[in-house]
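Example is below:
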Amino acid sequence: MSSSPYYVIDLYSGAGGLSLGAARAGFAVAAAVETDPHACAAHEINFPKTVHLMEDVSRLTGQRLKGAARIDRGDLAGVLGGPPCQGFSCIGRNNASDQRNRLFVHFFRLVAELSPRFFLVENVPGILNEKHKHLVKEGLALVKDEYTVLPPMVLAAHEYGAPTTRKRAFFIGYRKGMMKDLRPEDFVPPANVERVRVCDALAGLPVKVSPRWQTEEQGWRIARVKGSGYYQSRLQGHIPAGVGDPHALLCLSKENRVSGCLGTKHSRTVTLRYARVPHGTRDRISKSHRLDPNGFCPTIRAGTGPERGRFQAVRPLHPAQSRVITPREAARLQGFPDWFQFAPTKWHSFRQIGGSVSPILAERILGVLRKALDDGGPIEG
């Protein structure tokens, strides 16, 4: 086991799904880059020891980033990232001309400039569509001479112990001769993985949520953990050193209180209509999906940013109540722990949760890379 820190940099970090998975897998998140001020603020709350840059990745250089992160050559283990996916999404516009698609290529440009031991970049499966093939090829061309690049892998979070069926496409590469060789088979789900259902994820959270719980302060409520599996152990434990908001950690450890239990005001007509929606089906007007307590949560969508009109994404319906789910319920369904903090408003918190990789999946995948580093020898200074 290496005695030196395994540093990673998280590009397009959002609130920190990949960062949390990396920290739990044994990496130190040296720097995070994010342009959205609300997501950057959330990441900073949860990762107070990380250097945060609220900058456009397309304008960053490797030298600038390495200097800001205070990393010497040879000390950087990995570069992670989840570039904007709107132009690749099959649910969204899947627009090949979306200018944000170029940010995928800039990820690889920075990998080439930073020369980490490995890289991991993720996006929606739609990026593998034929219309985006040229963009993927352009990005990978920047690193193909120095890295062994695995075939892209589409992984579903529920197969790795998260309560959501959310699928992501992963591109992983590692520097030749600098860590143990990897194969796609190394990233298959563990044979003993526990399937976590919606009812397992929501157990211990408030069931009856008042629509009057509208302010950040009112959203702090008692939460428990029921069960003792891999997923449950990560709801309130497995807190990496130096990670977590001290106030949130104190509230959890002393009072079992968690944030984000915010209610939504529905009219009586809407409430009655929601009450008639069977599990696993959608409300005919709002299109909200009624969660099946014995099933998995479908992909939680992020909604649109200010540049696209600030539209709230359709939120799932609680499996037992005639209401949409709270941000904290969404966080559990995505695999985030109870101490993890998001923006205080429902709109921003759902954007951050819906735009993230499940930390459960991220930890599993990055754990494989961590082991390959350990087996490949210590990082050279």
User: Anything to note?
Assistant: The two ends are 16 Å apart (CA to CA). The CA atoms of residues 303 and 312 lie 5 Å apart. The mean pLDDT is 91.
